Amino acid sequence: MLSGKTILIGITGGIAAYKICELIRKFKKSGANVKVVCTPNALNFVTKLTLQNLSQNEVYVEEFDVKSWKPEHISLADEADIMLIAPATANTISKIAQGIADNLLTSIACAFRKKMIIAPAMNCNMWNNAAVQKNLSILKSRGIEILEPDSGFLACGYLGKGRLCRLDKIFDAVVEALKCSDKLKGKKVVITSGGTIEDIDPVRYISNYSSGKMGFALANNAADMGAEVVLITTKDFEAPYKIVKVKSALDMQSALDNEFDTSDIIIMAAAVADYRVKEMCAQKIKKGESDVLTLELVKNPDILAGLCERRAHNSLDKPLIVGFCAETENLLQNAKEKINKKGCDFLVANDISRSDIGFSSDDNEVTILDYSGAIIKLDKAPKRVIARKILELISK
Question: Of the residues 105, 351, 364, 369, which has the maximum number of CB atoms within 10 A of its CB?
């Protein structure tokens, strides 16, 4: 199952460290090449010799124990197909989130640019600490998958959430990530995200509530699946792929025009403003005596329709084009009308009237329509899960 794959396992100083011995055996039995890196404190719970015998590889601990010209934190990061950190302590999670690289494991994490999975384990009060939760949110925003701990009796005597999740859950997550890692290999995927900003004057603008989270999830998952990713976004975002920062609808259209000819897939997840101010004021508009301020608006270009027309006009078989629509009523009816009008291959319809899946939510629930009339419903799930399912569908 995992033949030809190299899994880099990071073990930190938690009582659950001993459980990773069984996980290494499972990976080895599935054909993987397993390399282990430990923090010094991890060796208080499991011996280096045990890990070495189980992995059949050297176990790495010291950051400057370099046996070749290439620094270990770089070579280990380059060689691995995936990095798993389990158990991950609150200390290590916080260091990785803040970019601190003060030991070999955190240095590797800082240099790692492929799929990373983190399985935390700690006291329940530490897990619920606001700083730890903030750092976990930072990691999730960077595309790192977090396998949340289970609840139960903890080694410290507490009863609560903090136990390392089941080993089969960790194993399945790694297998799934590696299985998907080649589905978009060799493909260039361009994704838009965020709400466009249309200036009124130097201090005011027209925009919408789009957070860009769905676009970020799509971009991170596409990268995990082996694609060359270009993210065109109105939001500030850090990622190991090309990011083009834009502001207005016209900026976004221009950026897409530059990427169109070399793209295999374009996913329009951004919320593009339908209108812009006809003439932006060069100076701040002063509050006058009138109780009414009138702005003259003009339509922005329909970017999605324009891309589909460009492809049809040139009789091209690519890029595959995926549109998004946000509706507050008559979701399916409006989505059917839009896909027929725009001419895209897929349309992902969102019901933004629901607060639990609307703008800024970490979850989503979507209905996907394709050009043949097929309809697929994806039930409520984290946006990273929805993003993976969308990409798996269109990759076929």
Answer: 105
Identity of residue 383: K
Residue 209 tokens, joined? 């509530």
Superfamily of structural domain 6-180: Flavin prenyltransferase-like (3.40.50.1950)
**Catalytic option among 156, 308, 325, 344:** 156
Query: What is the full per-residue pLDDT of the chain (396 aa) written as tens digits?
Result: 788 899 999 999 999 999 999 999 999 999 999 999 999 999 999 999 999 999 999 999 987 665 554 556 688 888 999 999 999 999 999 999 999 999 999 999 998 988 899 999 999 999 999 999 999 999 987 778 999 999 988 888 888 998 999 999 999 999 988 877 778 989 999 999 999 999 999 999 999 999 999 999 999 889 888 899 999 999 998 887 999 999 999 999 999 999 999 999 999 999 999 999 999 999 999 988 888 989 999 999 999 999 999 999 888 888 999 999 988 899 899 999 999 999 999 999 998 888 888 788 888 999 999 988 899 999 988 888 899 899 999 988
Flag whether the pTM goes above 0.90. Answer: no
CATH code 3.40.50.150 for 188-395: no
Residues of the chain with CATH 3.40.50.1950: 6-180
Tell me where in the chain the CATH 3.40.50.10300 domain(s) lie.
188-395
